[in-house]
């Protein structure tokens, strides 16, 4: 997927447009699999909230991946994409008992993250094995928006409530077949992750019918050249050794599961947008693109930094630009960033646009959500059309006034 391919895609499908490289997704999946190849039973469940296009899901299904879902709609998408229900895990937070029961009926593995629902579900369906989400209270990464394992986080059942948890399991006579944690994004320190894993092992020991231990996700990917990333190979080596020792002590070869989203798809994606206006003020040069936080909200929501390249003029002399959108709201993608000289009409490419970009897009300002293209076998395949006025009006009801 070189610049000339990207420019052709922008021309053919219009801008803005999301483009995903299937080979990059496959390479990430393989790298993770390889890092854990000394685990007898490994299971990767792609966290599809990162990028939930049905063709992307089909690609994961074809690779043999499982699916991690957080809503019944994601479960249904997964089933539609061809996933076997047994290969789907439902890991919601704060959803209703009814939704959990409905998903369970579809044959999907349930993961419960609070004692109230656990007790209700266990009482009504003691024969359905469930996984439980534990909160080990370990702070992974530095950004509290994306760290979900710490003490005041809403996610998981606190390890300090283990006695209560055990009582519920005993009283309801339910089966716990999996133990899960997800400490949040951006694991920078493998030792912190391994420390959280120890807590999980401690909890796991107390359940006799486990089939798997799910270590969640939070692998950090590089956002720019030289940026730190999780050392997957080192993590693979260390966790494998520890996991295998645990299984020996437990007396059963358990499955080691992960549910990465960002790691598998972030780097595969590039977001292409066109520069509508170059606006010179007394202090700043703005490049205003035909998009905004309605299409890519991560910089405004999390302060994430997406590298931006001028695809139309990659060799141009670098100058400083603030890249902003066309939404009537402050929507700054980049502040005084060095980018190859920009002219109106140029196509800019935003890197790391595979995860949590399209899936967080909205119709704010009544704009259409962009098209999505999958670069697969050296060809561009449209996998979602740009919206139209019909989509904006769908479900709106005009009453007589
Ligand atoms: C979002 C989420 C993931 C994926 O996290 P990434 O940082 O994208 O890898 C995994 N598990 C659960 C439960 C999640 O909610």
Account of the 3D structure:
This protein has 401 residues and is α/β, with parallel strands linked by helices. The protein folds into two domains: 3-17 and 266-381, Lyase, Ornithine Decarboxylase, Chain A, domain 1; 22-264, TIM Barrel, CATH 3.20.20.10. Helices cover 30% and strands 23% of the residues. The protein has helices at residues 3-13, 22-35, 54-63, 72-80, 97-105, 115-124, 162-172, 190-204, 232-250, 262-265, 298-302, 389-393, and strands at 17-21, 42-47, 66-69, 88-90, 109-112, 130-135, 157-158, 176-180, 212-214, 255-258, 269-280, 285-289, 308-310, 318-324, 332-340, 347-350, 371-376, 379-384. The strands form two sheets. Strands 1, 11, 12, 13, 14, 15, 16, 17 and 18 form a nine-stranded mixed beta sheet that branches. An eight-stranded parallel beta barrel has the order 2-3-4-5-6-8-9-10, surrounded by five helices. The longest helix is centred in the middle third of the chain and has 19 residues, at 232-250. The chain starts with a helix and ends in an 8-residue tail after the last helix. The mean pLDDT is 94. Bound molecules: pyridoxal-5'-phosphate (PLP). Residues 47, 49-50, 68, 70, 91, 182, 185, 216-219, 259-263, 355 line the site of pyridoxal-5'-phosphate (PLP).
* Total domain units: 2
Distance between the termini: 53 Å
Query: Would you tell me which CATH topology of the largest domain applies?
Result: TIM Barrel
Helicity level: 25-40%
Q: Please state roughly what percent of the residues sit in beta strands, choosing from under 5%, 5-15%, 15-25%, 25-35%, 35-45% or over 45%.
A: 15-25%
H/E element sequence: HEHEHEHEHEHEEHEHEHEHEEHEEEEEEH
Task: Indicate the CATH architecture of the largest domain.
Answer: Alpha-Beta Barrel
Task: Kindly provide the radius of gyration, computed on alpha-carbon positions and rounded to a whole number of angstroms.
Answer: 23 Å
Low-confidence parts: none
Task: Enumerate how many helices there are, as a single number.
Answer: 12
């Amino acid at each position: 997927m070189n610049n000339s391919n990207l420019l052709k895609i922008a021309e053919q499908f219009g801008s803005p447009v999301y483009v995903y490289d299937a080979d990059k997704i496959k390479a990430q999946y393989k790298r993770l699999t390889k890092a854990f190849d000394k685990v007898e039973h490994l299971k990767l469940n792609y966290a599809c909230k990162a990028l939930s296009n049905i063709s992307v899901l089909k690609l994961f299904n074809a690779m043999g991946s499982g699916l991690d879902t957080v809503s019944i709609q994601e479960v249904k998408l997964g089933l539609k994409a061809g996933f076997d229900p047994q290969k789907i895990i439902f890991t919601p937070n704060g959803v209703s008992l009814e939704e959990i029961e409905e998903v369970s009926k579809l044959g999907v593995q349930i993961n419960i993250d609070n004692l109230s629902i656990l007790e209700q579900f266990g009482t009504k369906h003691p024969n359905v094995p469930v996984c439980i989400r534990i909160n080990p209270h370990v702070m992974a990464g530095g950004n509290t928006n994306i760290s979900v394992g710490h003490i005041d986080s809403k996610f998981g059942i606190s390890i300090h409530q283990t006695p209560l948890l055990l009582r519920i399991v005993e009283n309801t006579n339910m089966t716990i077949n999996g133990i899960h944690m997800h400490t949040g994004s951006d694991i920078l320190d493998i030792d912190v992750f391994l420390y959280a894993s120890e807590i999980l092992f401690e909890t796991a020991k107390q359940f006799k019918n486990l089939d798997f231990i799910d270590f969640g996700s939070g692998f950090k990917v590089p956002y720019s050249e030289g940026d730190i990333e999780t050392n997957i190979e080192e993590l693979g080596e260390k966790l494998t050794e520890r996991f295998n020792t645990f299984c020996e002590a437990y007396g059963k070869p358990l499955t080691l599961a992960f549910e990465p989203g960002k790691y598998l798809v972030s780097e595969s994606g590039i977001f292409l947008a066109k520069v509508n206006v170059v606006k010179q003020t007394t202090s700043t040069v703005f490049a205003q693109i035909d998009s905004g936080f309605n299409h890519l909200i991560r910089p405004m929501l999390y302060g994430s930094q997406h590298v931006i390249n001028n695809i139309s003029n990659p060799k141009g002399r670098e100058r400083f630009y603030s890249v902003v959108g066309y939404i009537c709201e402050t929507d700054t993608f980049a502040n005084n960033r060095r980018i190859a000289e920009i002219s109106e009409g140029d196509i800019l490419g935003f890197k790391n646009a595979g995860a949590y970009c399209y899936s967080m897009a909205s119709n704010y300002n009544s704009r259409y959500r962009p098209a999505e293209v999958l670069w697969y076998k050296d060809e561009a395949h449209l996998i979602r059309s740009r919206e139209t006025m019909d989509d904006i009006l769908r479900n709106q009801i005009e009453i007589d006034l």
